[in-house]
Every structure is written in C-alpha cells, then in structure tokens.
C-alpha cells in the first residue's frame, strides 16, 4: 500500500480537528450554562468543574484519535475522508497499544504549532513517519481505490479471480498434513496466512504467486511438512491454515 503524503494527512487532521472543535464548543457551552449555578453553590465546586472540564478536553482529544484508530481499522473520520489509514510497519492492523503510543507522542509532534515537528519528521524519514509513528512502529498509508462493481460498464476489475490471465482455481484441497508438524506453528503464523488470504484478490497474478511461495517456504521450514506433489503454494497454505484452526479449536 502506498505511503500517505503530507497533503492527505493534512486533510485528515483538518477534518478531525473540526470535529473535535465542535465537541469542544458543546462542552464549553454546557460549562457556560452550568457555571453560574455551580458558583452559587460553592467556589471550590466551580474550580473542580473547570478542572474536570479541562481533563475532559484532553481525554476527548487523545481518546478520539486513539479509539478510532484502534477499533476502526486504523482510521478516524478525517482519515476516512482523506482515504488513508494507520497500519503497523509489518503491514498488520494497528492495535490499541500502538494507537495509544502514537497519539500520546502526537502532543510532541504538534510543537510549536500545528504539527511543525511532525511535518519535519515526515520529510526527514524514508517512510514518512512522524515521531508518534516512529515510537509506535506504525505507517500511514493510502487506501486502495474502490474496485468497479461487476455489473458496471466502466472500468475493469483488478481482482485476480476475475482476470483473464488468472489461473483456473484448483479443486478443494483433499489432502491432510501430519498433525505433529502443524502443532509447531503458532497463532502468529495463522495471522500471516489469514492476512494473505484477505489481500490476495487485490494482487496481480505474479505478485500473488510470489508472495504465496515465500509464505509457504517459511511455513514449511518451520513445521517441516512438505506439500504433496502437484499442490500449489496457495493450496498448501489453505490446508495448513485449516488444520491449524481445527487444532486451535480442539485445544
């Protein structure tokens, strides 16, 4: 996935900032309406109300970016508008810990005004990472363009499953691999295979075959189980993943 540039990231921040400012205005309005009554009750209560209000502003600002990125596939509303998302450097989806780290460092990236430090870091790093990305091991990438529906007259499908040059699908795998070899694999290995399965239709035929072979070679080296003669790398991975899921359910 191509890296996001300054322009798309600026659009995302601008949209998210406008949303956050709208929430802030609502909070200030609520405080403005309640503060006279609180002051009439107690000056100390008014001080606590202001302190709680300031804390809420921080929590909403940090929580907005953190929770959206962690639980909305690396996107905030602004990133969705800009067509970008945050992922781990390994290509996997961002988790809560990475999201918390990158958004805590966000306050350093904002120094001295509107992400000046972050912009410098983006230009200075090979993978366009601000300090928060460097600390959390994340990247900001552009989403792939939406594919044309099958019934549309305009454009062409990029899915290899519908490509004229795509190989004919193999019949459902009918072989079984030794269980002792499958048991050597971990949940992380299954996650790698599942990630390939989820993205393989977006890849060109050559890239798809090459990536399947690389993953299959790594899996084979770890479990010590060779695929049967005539089985493709993808079929081998499908059988390994299926048996690994079954093994996990049995445990």
Task: Label this structure with key terms.
single chain; 251 residues; mainly alpha; 2 domains; two-stranded antiparallel ribbon; 2 strands; 61% helix; elongated
Question: Could you characterize what this model shows?
Answer:
The chain is mainly α and 251 residues long. The chain has 2 domains: 137 residues, no CATH class; 87 residues, no CATH class. 61% of the residues lie in helices and 4% in strands. It has 11 helices and 2 strands; from the N terminus they run αααβααααβαααα. It has a two-stranded antiparallel sheet.
What are the SSEs and their pairings?
Blueprint: H1 6-41, H2 43-71, H3 77-82, E1 84-88, H4 96-104, H5 106-109, H6 116-124, H7 131-136, E2 138-142, H8 179-182, H9 187-199, H10 205-223, H11 233-250
Antiparallel strand pairs: 1-2
Helix pairs in contact: 1-2, 2-4, 9-10, 9-11, 10-11
Taking the alpha carbons of the first and last residues, their distance comes to 36 Å
Strands ordered across the widest β-sheet: 1-2
Question: How many discrete structural domains?
Answer: 2
Helix content: 55-70%
Q: How confident overall, as mean pLDDT?
A: 82
Instruction: Give me the Rg, rounded.
Output: 25 Å
Number-wise, the strands total 2
- In what range is the share of β-strand residues? under 5%
Query: Any idea what the shape is?
Result: elongated
Low-confidence residue ranges: 146-172
Name the assembly state: single chain
- Report the total helices: 11
Largest sheet: 2 strands, antiparallel
N-to-C SSE string, H for helix and E for strand:
HHHEHHHHEHHHH
Structural class call reads mainly alpha
């Amino acid at each position: 996935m191509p890296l996001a540039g300054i322009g798309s990231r600026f659009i995302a921040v601008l949209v998210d900032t406008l949303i956050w400012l709208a929430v802030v205005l609502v909070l200030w309005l609520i405080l403005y309406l309640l503060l006279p009554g609180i002051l009439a009750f107690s000056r100390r209560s008014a001080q606590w109300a202001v302190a709680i209000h300031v804390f809420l502003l921080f929590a909403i600002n940090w929580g907005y970016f953190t929770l959206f990125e962690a639980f909305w596939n690396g996107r905030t509303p602004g990133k969705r508008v800009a067509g970008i998302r945050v992922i781990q450097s390994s290509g996997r989806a961002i988790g809560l810990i990475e999201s918390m780290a990158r958004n805590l460092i966000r306050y350093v990236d904002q120094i001295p005004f509107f992400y000046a430090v972050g912009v410098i870091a983006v230009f200075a790093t090979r993978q366009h990472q601000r300090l928060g990305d460097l600390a959390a091991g994340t990247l900001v990438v552009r989403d792939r363009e939406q594919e044309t529906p099958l019934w549309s007259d305009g454009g062409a499908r990029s899915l290899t499953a519908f490509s004229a040059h795509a190989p004919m699908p193999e019949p459902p795998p009918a072989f079984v691999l030794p269980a002792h070899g499958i048991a050597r694999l971990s949940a992380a290995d299954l996650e790698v295979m599942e990630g390939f399965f989820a993205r393989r239709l977006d890849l060109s035929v050559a890239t798809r075959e090459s990536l399947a072979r690389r993953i299959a070679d790594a899996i084979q080296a770890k479990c010590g189980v060779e695929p049967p003669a005539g089985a493709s790398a993808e079929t081998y991975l499908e059988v390994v993943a299926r048996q690994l899921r079954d093994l996990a359910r049995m445990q």
